[in-house]
Amino acid sequence: MDAEKASSSSERLLSFVPGEGDIGPITGVKDFLRELRVESKKLWVLAGPAIFTFVFRYSLGAVTQVFLGQVGTLALAAFAIENSVIAGLSLGVLMGMGSALETLCGQAFGAGQIEMLGVYLQRSWIILSATALLLLPLYIFSTPLLKLIGQTAEISDAAGTFALYMIPQLFAYALNFPISRYLQAQRKIFEIAAIAGVALVLHTVFSWVLIVKVGWGMAGAAVVLNASWVFIVAAQMVYVFCGGCGLAWSGFSMKAFRDLWAFVRLSFASAIMICLETWYFMALILFAGYLKNAQVSVDALSICMNIVGWTVMIAMGSNAAVSVRVSNELGAAHPRTAKIAVAAAVVSSTVINLVLFVILMATKNEYPSLFTSSSDVRKIVSKLTPLLATCVFINGIQPVLSGVAVGAGWQALVAYVNVGCYYLFGVPLGLLLGYKLDMGVEGIWLGMMTGTVAQTCILFGLVYRTNWNKEASMANERIKKWGGEAR
């Protein structure tokens, strides 16, 4: 009886997954444009609220940075180093390991294996919480570590103190990334966006009060940031535990402890892929810290990276949407629909980022004053704007292609691509231009951006050559391997 009830509920849930059947063969441009228009509507139902979610969450740190920029250059540099290096490294590891759920939960949901989603979530919580404990020494000993890699004593001491304040955020990351992927796979995007929006409003108000009015500076920033992330996690848990996910959450289960090592391997592959992308621009901030007049260089570059981060959040919304669409449709054995979803996401992202490119170039002398009161920093940011605008365009397309990779389960392959393009090509070229040819921040950034262009081109080639029928078959095998039933 219970099995029949679960099966019936699964069938009802499947009716909500886009693609009640796969689309027919596309025989010409007219067919392609028609399907592209239909898929774009489905994609933006997911991408719209997902973009707001990523922008809201990213803005937590960005709002903190804006207020600290009014406190002084040391506070801004310390936050930039901690946020980019210490928290950035941890975020890359935990977000990467959590992204394994995008593949597993998305494909299981598409195949109707709803009851497995809660088990996957609990396995991921166990693994990410253990990983957070392993990352804890990075926060505790951040001051000597930053000095060891060549940061100035003044910046290292301030950033190290701030890192100690931010330990609660580390464990909030470990709980948040799995539950976000779990909800995202079920297309509960509006719920995630609403929670993140409330958190941002509260964060902005209390940041202004504690950092500016009360004068707590970095300590106030830490209090508000930690509280905001804890609020997000608590609100999501309340939603799940109180029945918001139906059969996808049936309570805690001992099944979560089965096949942990195999789950760790998949999570580790996902972590490597995401970390190599996240750490790449973290390294850009680090390299700037070795230049002459390091505080000004780090401040200017951190403002540019802040803007890149904001615009990448828009692309990450498309990343999340295309990951859900591809994983759901592959899980449901709809390969042609998955292929059209990829095309719709790439076209939409390209148009959006062309608009952002134009806006940045048109306001290059005005927007730096929003982030800093230092005239020296404003001049450097304005000078870097052409590079910034180009970077925004490129980084708007790359996450969409990465979303396809996650939805299809290609994490290990993309990790190899990232190593070659980023660290064997982009970093050496950036160091050569920045230091050997004395081009400074511009040279470092230009070289590393070239690595991103190479990675984007390779991912595009992989997507273009993909056999989507084979990917749908592999999704079926993956569901069987992780405890579900084959189609």
Automatic annotation (TrEMBL):
GO cellular component terms attached to this protein's record: membrane
Classification lineage: Eukaryota, Viridiplantae, Streptophyta, Embryophyta, Tracheophyta
Record keywords: Membrane, Transmembrane, Transmembrane helix
Primary site of residence: membrane
Gene Ontology MF annotations: antiporter activity; xenobiotic transmembrane transporter activity
Transmembrane regions listed in the UniProt entry: 43-68, 74-94, 125-146, 158-177, 189-211, 223-250, 262-287, 307-328, 340-360, 380-401, 413-437, 443-464
NCBIfam families assigned to the protein according to its UniProt record, in alphabetical order: matE
Membrane-topology annotation of the record: Multi-pass membrane protein
Keyword check for Transferase: no
PANTHER family from the UniProt entry: MULTIDRUG RESISTANCE PROTEIN (PTHR11206)
Family from the record: Belongs to the multi antimicrobial extrusion (MATE) (TC 2.A.66.1) family.
Keyword Signal applies: no
Originating organism: Kalanchoe fedtschenkoi
Biological process terms in GO annotation: xenobiotic detoxification by transmembrane export across the plasma membrane
Compartment(s): Membrane
Official protein name in the record: Protein DETOXIFICATION
